[in-house]
TrEMBL record:
It holds the Pfam family TrkA_C. PANTHER family: POTASSIUM CHANNEL PROTEIN 2-RELATED-RELATED (PTHR43833), TRK SYSTEM POTASSIUM UPTAKE PROTEIN TRKA (PTHR43833:SF8). Keywords: Ion transport, NAD, Potassium, Potassium transport, Transport. The keyword Transport applies. Residues 1-118 form the RCK N-terminal domain. Gene3D superfamilies: NAD(P)-binding Rossmann-like Domain, Regulator of K+ conductance, C-terminal domain. Residues 136-215 form the RCK C-terminal domain. It comes from Kribbella pratensis. This is Trk system potassium uptake protein TrkA.
């Protein structure tokens, strides 16, 4: 598919490289031509100097044929404005905006504009490692009803099927991280020492489920 990116900083340039490696076409927009120096020498996509929320600039970048748009400049206002233009003017449904202000990110997320809050993401990652018994959501749906979180499990859950966690809590084990790689659990998948357990659960049940998994499993 064709993807238009606004912002050729470290994130934008890496995103462009990753998309091209996966066989997609890319056009990247930035106010400064110097920013394109960050692109890999192997980059074959288009580079456009201009504002990413300008209609003519977006058309030059191929927005009319695009299936996705990413706004990753260093300005929250510019990113949100560009994301709205891409969605509302050009009908791009797959849109994401980078937002530094966590409060504003949550507002726009609830309005249906997917956002990536870099500060909040970093803090959440730190919290997850420092305080594993108090998991921070890895993802939360816009209505704040469902969360995906890495949950600390008591040592006695080790060696038991991941499905036992689901039966005991009513939550869903979305995946395990084992030696740095994600694993989708099957009926016979057993939780091993060192596994990180990622659970999908209702927000209202999160505290109870985390407390339950933090203690020994009840024997049937």
């Amino acid at each position: 598919m064709h993807v238009v990116i606004m912002g050729c900083g470290r994130v934008g340039s890496m995103l462009a490289r990753g998309l091209e490696k996966r066989g997609h076409t890319v056009a990247i927009i930035d106010q400064s031509a110097d920013a394109f120096r960050r692109l890999s020498p192997a980059y074959t996509g288009r580079t456009i100097v201009g504002m990413g929320f300008d209609r003519e600039v977006l058309i030059e970048a191929g927005i009319e044929d695009a299936e996705a748009f990413a706004a990753v400049s260093n300005g929250d206002n510019s990113n949100i404005l560009a994301a709205r233009v891409a969605r509302e003017t050009f009908g791009i449904s797959n849109v994401v905006a980078r937002i530094y202000d966590p409060g504003r990110a949550e507002v726009y997320q609830r309005l249906g504009i997917p956002t990536v809050g870099t500060v909040r993401w970093t803090v959440d990652q730190m919290m997850r490692r420092l305080l594993p018994e108090g998991s921070e959501p890895e993802w939360r749906d816009p209505s704040a009803t469902v969360r995906l979180a890495e949950v600390h499990v008591h040592a006695d859950w080790i060696g038991r099927p991941a499905f036992d966690i689901e039966k005991a809590t009513g939550a869903r084990v979305a995946f395990l991280t084992r030696l740095g790689e994600g694993i989708l659990p099957r009926a016979d998948t057993v939780v091993q020492e060192g596994d990180l357990v990622h659970v999908v659960m209702l927000e209202r049940d999160a505290a109870a489920i985390e407390a339950q998994l933090g203690t020994k499993p009840e024997e049937a």
